[in-house]
């Protein structure tokens, strides 16, 4: 069974790499934006009093690029792949073979987690080498927030795949959700600059909690218990609902 799963995961990995747009938006775009904007916009490399003396590129912008990669995978790549497989009858045909449909789901999750780890590693390492972005001041805290946040976003993607009637719908809904969720995370207006009421709303959204947790860990601070609890709650709720509603055919 382990050997079969390994082969399935290898096939899924090759299929992922054959999708240039998925590779671009999940890996190339976040890393490219970090380096391009960090090098060309001087203000990104200046200490900002409103950010506690940090440079914008150090924690806020780097955290947003990590978040962008994970959200792209969770709200676009993963649900689209699963719905397309369901539309084409791949999952139904798998049910007649020794490889169960659940194995394909597990392989898809594994590939997306691996890609998010690769994208995040490149973001941190190249940001550090090229822009002098400090590596996470709290490595264990960063890993904990990253794992919990990634699982939360992927669980939301599974829920989208569970309820979407077609690949066109899931792509449209995923793209529509991305923009407000990225905004609430601080992608275009950093959370410290948000009005109090907006920042409070952001605290209880999955991306707001994820983004702030990443920023805290990158800055050498422990993530706030509220944000960890919010992520855990979203992951549990969406994961359970997705498992209950998911259709193989």
TrEMBL record:
Keywords: Antibiotic resistance, Cell membrane, Membrane, Transmembrane, Transmembrane helix, Transport. The keyword Transmembrane applies. The chain crosses the membrane at residues 21-41, 61-85, 109-133, 139-162, 169-189, 226-246. One of its GO terms (molecular function) is ABC-type transporter activity. Its main location: membrane. Residues 21-249 form the ABC transmembrane type-2 domain. It comes from the Bacteria. Coiled coil: none annotated. GO terms for cellular component: ATP-binding cassette (ABC) transporter complex. One of its GO terms (biological process) is response to antibiotic. It is found in: Cell membrane; Membrane. This is Transport permease protein. It comes from Microbispora rosea.
């Amino acid at each position: 069974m382990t050997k079969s799963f390994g082969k399935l995961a290898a096939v899924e990995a090759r299929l992922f790499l054959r999708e240039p747009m998925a590779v671009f938006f999940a890996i190339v775009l976040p890393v490219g934006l970090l380096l391009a904007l960090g090098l060309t916009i001087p203000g990104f490399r200046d200490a900002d009093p409103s950010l506690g003396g940090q440079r914008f590129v150090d924690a806020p912008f780097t955290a947003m690029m990590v978040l962008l990669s994970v959200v792209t995978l969770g709200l676009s790549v993963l649900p689209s792949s699963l719905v397309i497989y369901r539309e084409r009858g791949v999952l139904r045909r798998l049910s007649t073979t020794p490889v169960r449909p659940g194995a394909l789901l597990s392989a898809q999750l594994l590939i997306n987690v691996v890609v998010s780890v690769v994208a995040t590693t490149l973001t941190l390492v190249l940001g550090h080498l090229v822009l002098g972005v400090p590596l996470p001041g709290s490595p264990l805290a960063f890993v904990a927030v990253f794992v919990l946040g990634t699982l939360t976003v992927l669980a939301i993607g599974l829920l989208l795949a569970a309820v979407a009637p077609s690949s066109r719908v899931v792509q449209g809904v995923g793209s529509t959700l991305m923009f407000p969720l990225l905004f609430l995370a601080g992608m275009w207006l950093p959370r410290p600059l948000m009005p109090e009421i907006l920042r409070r709303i952001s605290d209880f959204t999955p991306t707001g909690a994820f983004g702030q947790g990443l920023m805290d860990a990158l800055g050498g601070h422990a993530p706030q218990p509220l944000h960890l609890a919010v992520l855990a709650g979203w992951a549990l709720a969406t994961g359970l609902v997705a498992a209950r509603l998911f259709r193989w055919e």
